[in-house]
Amino acid sequence: MSAARLAGEGHRVHACVRDLKKSQHLHVETASRGGAKNLSVHAMDVADPVSIKAVVTEIASREGVIDVLINNAGFGIGGFFEDLSDEDWRRQFDTNFFGVLNVTREVLPVMRPRRAGRIINISSMAAFSGSPAFSAYASSKWALEGFSECLYMELKPFHIDVILVEPGSYRTRIFTENARYAANFNRKDSPYYAMSCQLKSFVDSYLRRSRRSPEEVAKVISALATQEHTRFRNIIGLLSRLRCWVVRHIPFELYAWAVARIFFRGTTKPHA
Ligand SMILES: NC(=O)c1ccc[n+]([C@@H]2O[C@H](COP(=O)([O-])OP(=O)(O)OC[C@H]3O[C@@H](n4cnc5c(N)ncnc54)[C@H](OP(=O)(O)O)[C@@H]3O)[C@@H](O)[C@H]2O)c1
Fold this sequence. Notes:
This protein is an alpha/beta fold. It folds into two domains: 1-43, no CATH class; 44-264, Rossmann fold (3-Layer(aba) Sandwich). It is 48% helix and 12% strand. The chain has helices at 2-8, 24-32, 49-63, 86-96, 98-111, 135-155, 193-209, 215-226, 238-249, 252-264, and strands spanning 13-17, 39-43, 68-71, 77-78, 117-122, 160-166, 180-181, 233-235. Helix 6 links the parallel strand 5 and strand 6. Helix 1 packs across helix 8 and helix 4 packs parallel to helix 6 (135-155). The chain is globular, with a radius of gyration of 20 Å. The mean pLDDT is 93. Bound molecules: NADP nicotinamide-adenine-dinucleotide phosphate. NADP nicotinamide-adenine-dinucleotide phosphate binds at residues 17-19, 22, 44-47, 72-75, 95, 99, 122, 124, 167, 169-170, 172-174, 178. Residues 17-19, 22, 44-47, 72-75, 95, 99, 122, 124, 167, 169-170, 172-174, 178 line the site of NADP nicotinamide-adenine-dinucleotide phosphate (NAP).
């Protein structure tokens, strides 16, 4: 959506997808905003350094410059720690964390000599507060925040801005066709089965009721990509800012108690 919006606003956009056959909706969305001529779509897997190198080299030779990099690719693996395999964790980090490092590593040598540029990393509210069954996702975004803080300081002397965007929950494909679960999530023989049923129905009903449009996030990203003065951290929406404030100011034990009340009310005690 951000790519379509930026192209519609007249910016030259190179969007990357893993499977070009699945980019039809991006072309349609961009055309509906009048930006078709500004959009090029490339095949890239952020977990595959070879595909990144090929795409960045092509863009750099075609455009000569890369003004803004938006590290957006990401997904979430749902599952309690004991239901998650080592492979689940590695897949989560390969995209959400190492993927950002891989792409940034290739783009920086194009940006740095010009002493100008902007890197926008899409983090999450999950980077401020943990919640049950999202440890892999939250950890990957916490790692991204730490990396981004350090990179911000390293790149300041080169006039390259590093920016974090921290959205709350929006109904996107991350919760539908791109949703991923631990192999053992919601299995009847898992000691976490009762909790996972409760959690799943809470998340489903929350998303059904959610009226927040991802356009809200695209609007912020487009402003951050283009406006002169920017902030490092960008939490989107009043409710998210309020939640973040509460998390920072109340004792963690109280926050964890409230989360358990919301997610697991009435759940029978987990069995050993
Ligand atoms: N939606 C929310 O509530 C929410 C909240 C906070 C943060 N975020 C963050 O926002 C970003 C965008 O998510 P979204 O909500 O827009 O979900 P989405 O609709 O599922 O979009 C995620 C995109 O990332 C791509 N992707 C996943 N793994 C990739 C890889 N290895 N290489 C290249 N592309 C890859 C997916 O491409 P494929 O189609 O090829 O899978 C998909 O186009 C993510 O970083 C997510 O963590 C989302």
